[in-house]
Design brief:
Strand order of the largest sheet of chain B: 3-2-4-5-6
Order of helices and strands of chain A: HEHEHEHEHEHEEHEHHHEHH
Shape of chain A: globular
Largest interface: A-B, 25 and 22 residues
CATH architecture of chain B: 3-Layer(aba) Sandwich
Number of helices of chain B: 4
Distance between the termini of chain A: 22 Å
CATH class of chain B: Alpha Beta
Strand order of the largest sheet of chain A: 7-6-5-8-9
Distance between the termini of chain B: 9 Å
Order of helices and strands of chain B: EHEHEEHEEEHE
Strand content of chain B: 25-35%
Number of helices of chain A: 12
Radius of gyration of chain B: 16 Å
Shape of chain B: globular
Oligomer: heterodimer
Radius of gyration of chain A: 19 Å
CATH topology of chain B: Rossmann fold
Helix content of chain A: 25-40%
Helix content of chain B: 25-40%
Number of domains of chain B: 1
């Protein structure tokens, strides 16, 4: 199969074949991240721009490092120190970046659909690094890569996603990716944090976490966004931790070789206990390493070939 | 459409050439001290494996063996419309101080070898890199030459040298292909 997307906006519109092609392409890039000299000349002369309208450490750093390891010029634009504070529109910012010769623009934005708008506006490839509560495709791809690497395959596994599903773009992308790859997905969280449209996706939703993680092969623990508590969606962090936190006692319900994942940053002692986060079953740091390989693969697929831009 | 024009080497001649190259490698390096073998994907890999096997059979040494995928080091990535599939590199040893026998099937423009040299240097500082190819067909575009050659075959640009190997194609032979009129 050939890969000919200009943009990576979400997993919803992607086929299983495309997802597998990206995961396969990431395998040789992981080898490069383990070399003594972690540098290849593939994107020499290409320009990669990180345009982040929301705070981010790991995603932005991961993209920056991915670009630099492939010899691209990488520029980071954070909104507080740019013309955006002077009122420049997203479209004008995008056109400016195009005029500067960007080959790939990576965008994170608080509004769902912002990367789509940028993708339609400019010729450069656009990668969605998280838009509103919509999608975060590179996170889901690295999650799939990690599961495949640790479990051999994704199809047939039971994967539980626990936490704030309602506000989580990671959960949405994970659900698209996992179901396309043939996994069984169950989500769990307080009723106020479960979106009503889950049934239409064929996803089972539980308010009881033990039920959700029963015999699960993989548990993806989501970060509890502390600011949500102020909106009264759940009574207290302590109660959340008691009812939904992943601890050793609770892990006994899951499969014996369960893989515990978390997209980070983690709140130790809230959604996950430190002993679980640091245990052998935890793949949290593998996720970070694999994220680099996935992002290198995507930069290669968007900017590696093709003289048409 | 390409059609087969002449058969240059059959199974036996391919094997004999590899065996002769093995002896030349031994002679040049006064044995196998620090010698490692690296095949260039795709068809350099089974050739490297065979060379490795012959060292084992005739010299009783199990030389370190690796393979290179030079896709990410190509100099024509920006001019081809589709990204080539990346298969991955595997060098399971430290190259520093080693004598690397770089193996490929056909030496033509020299651009693949240039990319392979760059990639190898990114793994460390080998003592030497020596190039072994089954067929040298001429038409170099870079100042690169092979140290060990199975067979020199003068060709025209219109012709294509097809190296068929059992591991990939089901049989061993080298043929010249030509554009059909």
């Amino acid at each position: 199969m050939s890969f000919n997307r200009k943009d990576i906006l979400g997993l919803q519109e992607m086929s299983r074949e495309e997802i597998e092609y990206i995961l396969d392409t990431a395998v040789p890039f992981k080898e490069i991240t383990l070399r003594p000299i972690k540098k290849i000349p593939t994107l020499r002369g290409k320009t990669v721009i990180n345009l982040f309208y929301e705070p981010s450490t790991r995603t932005r750093t991961s993209f920056e490092l991915a670009g630099k390891r492939m010899s691209a010029d990488v520029i980071n634009i954070s909104t507080s120190a740019s013309s955006i504070v002077k009122g420049e529109s997203l479209k004008d910012t995008a056109l400016t970046l195009q005029a500067l010769g960007a080959d790939v623009v990576i965008i994170r934005h608080g509004m769902s659909g912002a990367p789509h708008l940028v993708g339609q506006t400019i010729k450069a490839g656009v990668i969605n690094a998280g838009d509103g509560t919509h999608e975060h495709p590179t996170q889901a791809l690295l999650d799939l890569y990690t599961i495949r690497e640790k479990k051999g395959q994704v199809a047939g596994l039971k994967v539980a996603i626990v936490g704030d599903i309602l506000h989580s773009r990671v959960a949405r992308s994970d659900i698209w990716g996992l179901t396309k790859m043939g996994a069984e997905v169950v989500v769990a969280g307080p009723n106020t944090l479960l979106p009503p449209e889950l049934q239409s996706l064929g996803i089972k939703a539980c308010t009881n976490v033990e039920e959700a993680i029963k015999d699960a092969d993989v548990i993806q623990v989501l970060r509890i966004q502390q600011e949500r508590q102020e909106k009264g969606l759940f009574p207290s962090l302590r109660e959340y931790s008691r009812l939904y936190g992943i601890n050793h006692e609770r892990l006994k319900y899951a499969a014996k070789d369960v893989l515990v994942m978390h997209p980070g940053p983690i709140n130790r002692g809230v959604e996950i206990t430190p002993d679980v986060a640091d245990s052998n079953q935890s793949a949290i740091l593998d996720q970070v390493t694999n994220g680099l390989a996935i992002r290198m693969a995507l930069l290669y697929l968007l900017a590696g070939g093709g003289g048409e831009v | 459409m390409l059609k087969e024009k002449t058969e240059i080497m059959d199974n036996e001649r391919v094997d004999r050439s590899i065996k002769r190259m093995m002896h030349e490698i031994l002679e040049r390096n006064h044995g196998t001290q620090e010698v490692v073998i690296v095949g260039i994907k795709t068809r350099g890999v089974p050739l490297a494996k065979r060379l490795h096997h012959m060292f084992k059979e005739f010299e009783g040494v199990d030389l370190p063996l690796g393979y290179l995928d030079i896709t990410l080091y190509r100099d024509d990535l920006t001019t081809i419309s589709q990204q080539p599939v990346v298969h991955g590199t595997h060098i399971p040893f430290d190259v520093t101080g080693k004598i690397i026998i770089l193996v490929d099937d056909v030496l033509y423009t020299g651009r693949t070898v240039r990319a392979a040299l760059d990639e190898l240097i990114d793994f460390g500082r080998p003592a030497a890199i020596q190039l072994a190819v089954l067929v040298d067909r001429g038409h170099r575009e870079l100042p690169i030459r092979a140290d060990f050659v199975g067979k020199n075959i003068p060709t025209s640009h219109k012709e294509v040298i097809a190296v068929r190997l059992e591991e990939i194609d089901g049989h061993n032979k080298v043929v010249i292909m030509e554009e059909e009129e």
